[in-house]
Amino acid sequence: MATAILLSEYGGPQALKIEHVDVAAPGPGELRIRQTAIGVNFHDVYVRSGLYKTLTLPGIPGIEAAGVVEAIGPQVTGFSTGDSIAYITNHYGAYASERILPARLAIRLPDAIDQDLAASVLLKGLTAQMLLRQVHQVQSGDTILVHAASGGVGQLLCQWASYLGATVIGTVGSKEKAEQARALGCAHTILYREENFVERVRQITNNQGVNVVYDSVGKDTFLGSLAALARRGHLVNFGQSSGSIDPIEVSILAPKSNSLTRPGVFHYTAERAMLESMASELFALIERDVLAVQTGQVYPLAEAARAHQALESRSRMGTLLLKP
For the Enoyl reductase (ER) domain, which residue ranges apply (predicted)? Predict the structure, then answer.
């Protein structure tokens, strides 16, 4: 039998319980996957706590993993047993040693991308690709603000945007994280606990503001992010680690003709061709050492609660993995 983490009720990390589960043979269009590395993301924390009520309980959380194809169902082409794959899914089920997966979600990994790396970077990397290349196409000469610049997505945004020729300003919570963000491409760092980031952005940009703000913090930073924009600047909110944003009047965008977007990566990867294109660009930049991925602590699957505690502490740098 396989093992999985079952969430039966919303709550703290202790709500994550290890269970034995049966995994059926793959049906039409499906693969059976033996998972070797499972990504741990803030989305998982929001699901566990009940902030996101998108997983039917009891259910198996987790939206990102990598592993090996063990069996192939009818009507599946393009995969062979033994293939190394990774995936993201908004239908959950990743916190498990084995699972059934729709083949349309599986991405075959190039030789240079191992399964631990894929599970560490795929969701964050596809999110960064969406933000920089589609939601707002960052150009050489742009000035951008990245909140939580030392976080998982933030690190990729800083490196990728710098590679594209943008000037990157990053907010961070400590001097250690500021040093890391500068090493990853931030031209300027702001210690948000000690400095007013809006005032610092105005100083850095000679009161012009930034072309785009990438904000995964939400409630605590939303109005400041809007104030930091230049004329015709674009505020991209893609998370809410500090809580949900209060309702706003659309007219607050009018004084500087600003725009606001709240994108979700699963809408951008819903078409197979787009998923493959986004992943291909991500993997190519990793292979060329444009993007460095810092892996973090590895926990046994049975200790998913400890992994969530580490993630919520915000004391660690690098990604977190679960190992079946």
Answer: 11-322
CA distance 107 to 99: 15
Closest residue by Cα to residue 30 from 100, 86, 82, 89: 100
96 and 6 share a domain? yes
Q: Are residues 162 and 241 in the same domain?
A: yes
Per-residue model confidence as pLDDT tens digits over 292-318: 987 778 999 999 999 999 988 866 666
Q: Report d(CA 206, CA 184) in Å as an integer.
A: 24
- How many other CB atoms are there within 10 angstroms of residue 272's CB atom? 12
Cα angle for residues 47, 59, 107 (degrees, 5° grid): 80
Give pLDDT tens digits for 141-192: 999 999 999 988 999 999 999 999 999 999 999 999 999 999 999 999 999 9
- Side-chain half-sphere CA neighbours of 2 within 13 A: 23
DSSP codes, 19-32:
EEE------TTEEE
Asked if residue 6 and residue 118 are part of one domain, the reply reads yes
In sequence order, which residues have a C-beta less than 8 Å from that of residue 95 and are 6 or more positions away? 4, 5, 16, 38, 44, 60, 61, 62, 301, 304, 322
117 and 141 both lie in a single domain: no
Q: What distance in Å separates the CA atoms of residue 292 and residue 298, rounded to the nearest whole number?
A: 18
